[in-house]
């Protein structure tokens, strides 16, 4: 089964490099990907929006011979949910890494600082303390070396959803910044911000306490958590 690893903002396929060795042992076909406009720092990012990122992953799903598992980190989780909406009959499962499904009409993050037609990795002061747990100076420097600006429209475009069959696709949430119990309690309280996740029929939760980038801070443990969520070959 193909397992498509969708990176979050500012990251390409190489960001999964410390995670994939664990996943390769599962017997699945592991496919870390680079989304349009992130091929290099010099790539043309003009005119690329959220729909283009979703379409790029949908094309990979269409190329696959059987059911597909999607793994989405951060903003890549919104991309994954858009793909589920487009191909609900082709997706066996979605694993969200410190992420979750966005609702119809919601952008990934329209508040990030835009420079021209792109969003570069902002200063670390933009992020919450919880984002940066375990991301020590060496890891921050590594992140800065590999970070690639994202197309500005990807962050601000509203997600468009139409097929309610997406709610039948099972999900695993790997919670990093805060415990999964926070999500469970928010669903129980009917909080609007978690309404899309609340409608999904089957959700499992895994706690992996660290910051927002576990592929840097706890890559082996992240690989193990993803592997445990995958269907058995």
TrEMBL record:
SUPFAM superfamilies xref list: alpha/beta-Hydrolases (SSF53474)
Top-level lineage group: Bacteria
Stretches assigned to coiled coil: none
Domain AB hydrolase-1: 3-221
Keyword vocabulary terms for this entry: Hydrolase
Molecular function GO terms recorded: hydrolase activity
Name by which UniProt lists this protein: Alpha/beta hydrolase
Organism: Agromyces protaetiae
Lineage of origin: Bacteria, Bacillati, Actinomycetota, Actinomycetes, Micrococcales
